[in-house]
Write a structure and sequence with these properties.
- The protein has about 260 residues and is α/β, with parallel strands linked by helices.
- The chain has one domain: Vaccinia Virus protein VP39 (Rossmann fold), CATH 3.40.50.150.
- The protein has nine helices and seven strands; from the N terminus they run ααααβαβαβαβαβαββ.
- A seven-stranded mixed β-sheet has the order 3-2-1-4-5-7-6, sandwiched between helices.
- Strand 2, helix 6 and strand 3 form a beta-alpha-beta unit.
- Helix 3 packs antiparallel against helix 6, helix 4 packs parallel to helix 5 and helix 8 packs parallel to helix 9.
- It binds S-adenosyl-L-homocysteine, 3,4-dihydroxybenzoic acid and magnesium ion.
Amino acid sequence: MVRLIPRRPLIEELQTRTWLAHRITRLYLGCMDQDLWIAVDRYLADNLISSDHRMEEALEANACAGLPAIDIAPSHGKLLHLLARVQGARRILEVGTLGGYSTIWLARALPSDGQLVTLELDPKHATVAQANIHRAGLTPLVDIRVGPALDSLAKLEAENPAPFDFIFLDADKPNNPAYLDWAIKFGRPGTVIIADNVVREGEIINDRSDDARVIGTRTFLERLGSHPQLDATAIQTVSTKGYDGFAMAVIKADA
Ligand code: SAH
Ligand code: DHB
Ligand code: MG
């Protein structure tokens, strides 16, 4: 049969179209009223998240110490908190502490005998986080471990820890595929795994990206979707922190 469109150029054409669609989407988003979704996020937070001076203090302390303002948005911190409560989480693992803002949201979901282990590369971030966590009265529940998370995870394994019920991945994105393997190892059937920043202003659909964070996230999402032990989804979000998203997976019951 005569092929009207040769195979190779067709694939290239489709790739180009995807890339074009992606560029146009970004252009369109640039024109959209970002002020609107920021205002709506603030409105929702004002109505649904009771004003909490410990949280505000933590963000102020982070800013004073010169930490980047890449903490989770308040509405998303509350979402993680509620998810951990719905899960009945007693043991939480977090990868990427920064100043402990998300840590505080998560630790507040724990019962008084719960535990949260959080891993942070930068000793300065960990020091600021420790102080924030202390002011929030959560020191007995939170164990901050300083160093590259892959090293801390290997050390943690040697301690033969009880399974974690809830795992939040929010550190260096190129390592997310490796963190996923650890999360499965440290979880149990029913464990919830959440990863932050999986949409990256839509850059995630750019299969030509040379950004290691995009490549790492794409590999992470592919593994999340194809892993036989996981049920997964992802949602896009807009917030005071811009256009991004979360991935969520639950470890399946043993077959
Ligand atoms: N979860 C925090 C934000 C984390 S920002 C919040 O929402 O409040 C990402 C953090 O990961 C930064 O503090 C950064 O220093 C840390 N990080 C980067 N690479 C890391 C690595 N290899 N191991 C552990 N932490 C890392
Ligand atoms: C970055 C990291 C994050 O976890 C985040 O939520 C936003 C930005 C970053 O490394 O730039
Ligand atoms: Mg993040």
